[in-house]
Write a structure and sequence with these properties.
Blueprint: H1 30-47, E1 52-56, H2 64-67, E2 73-78, H3 81-91, E3 97-101, H4 107-110, E4 118-121, H5 132-142, E5 146-152, H6 157-167, E6 171-175, E7 180-183, E8 188-189, H7 194-204, E9 206-214, E10 218-225
Parallel strand pairs: 1-2, 1-4, 2-3, 4-5
Antiparallel strand pairs: 5-10, 6-7, 7-8, 9-10
The protein binds S-adenosylmethionine (SAM).
S-adenosylmethionine binds near residues 55, 59 and 105.
């Protein structure tokens, strides 16, 4: 029986001491490499000149070299030990980057209201959390302007299966109706339609200010808190 609270996947169970291929675009099928290119360009355009930004679920710090040079301060948070270790190594080359251990469901305990200009929660991090609404509410509280989210787009099951196979993640179960995958190592990965995101935003007290599909496989949503 897999213990989903353990999140062994992000501790590296599938890759052990090898590189964490699931967060390294060079190991992806071409359509996901292109999604990453489009997302990176969009994020750069949106955050340039910001005083403070947050990456919720920093992973291995993939976006640190891309975004840190464009902003005053870049804070990355995560709860997986391996992710914190790897992202701290990347952050060490930047004076304006801080990495903190934190649960995304408790962000407002650690940051004051509207502390960040922008927050990002990308590459389907929202599809891995226990409560999407709680995470959106927390992001809304601590973010002055926009929250940028990217999630797997519903209707892309075959692409996703190919992605898991290509990077080497062993799928133990799939809920085809709701398009949720479960890995042997405890990863739970959901997917979303634009209507799902609209519903979550409403429940979290947020407005969807932009929604678009990136390279036919991912959904980009820009949200703002109504408060
Ligand atoms: C799919 S990865 C994305 C990593 C990074 N944002 C990127 O784009 O490369 C999701 C990350 O969020 C972290 N994460 C998931 N749920 C979390 C939670 N409740 N609190 C803190 N971090 C969480 C995972 O440990 C992992 O590093």
């Amino acid at each position: 029986m897999v213990d989903f609270s353990e999140k062994n996947f992000f501790e590296g169970k599938d890759f052990e001491s090898s590189p964490f291929r699931a967060l390294m675009p060079e190991f992806y099928p071409p359509e996901y490499q292109e999604y990453i290119r489009q997302e990176t360009a969009l994020l750069k355009e949106k955050v340039v000149g910001a005083k403070r930004i947050l990456e919720a679920g920093i992973g291995i710090g993939r976006l640190v070299p891309e975004l840190a040079p464009l902003v005053g301060e870049f804070v990355g948070v995560d709860k997986a030990r391996r992710m914190l270790e790897e992202s701290k190594k990347v952050a060490a080359s930047f004076q304006n980057v801080k990495i903190e251990e934190m649960n995304l469901e408790e962000l407002s305990k650690f940051f004051s209201e509207k502390y960040f200009d922008f927050s990002l929660c990308v590459w389907n991090t929202l599809g891995n959390v226990a409560s999407e609404v709680t995470v959106l509410q927390e992001l809304g509280k601590i973010t002055e302007k926009s929250v940028f989210i990217t999630t797997y787009l519903k209707g892309t099951l075959e692409h996703r299966k190919n992605w898991y196979k290509t990077v080497g993640v062993e799928i133990s179960d799939e809920d085809e109706t709701n398009e949720i995958f479960y890995s042997k190592s405890g990863l739970k990965s959901k997917s979303f339609s634009p209507e799902d995101m609209q519903q979550l935003a409403q429940e979290a007290g947020m407005d969807v200010v932009d929604s678009k599909i990136l390279n036919e496989v991912m959904l980009w949503t820009e949200l703002r808190s109504l408060k």
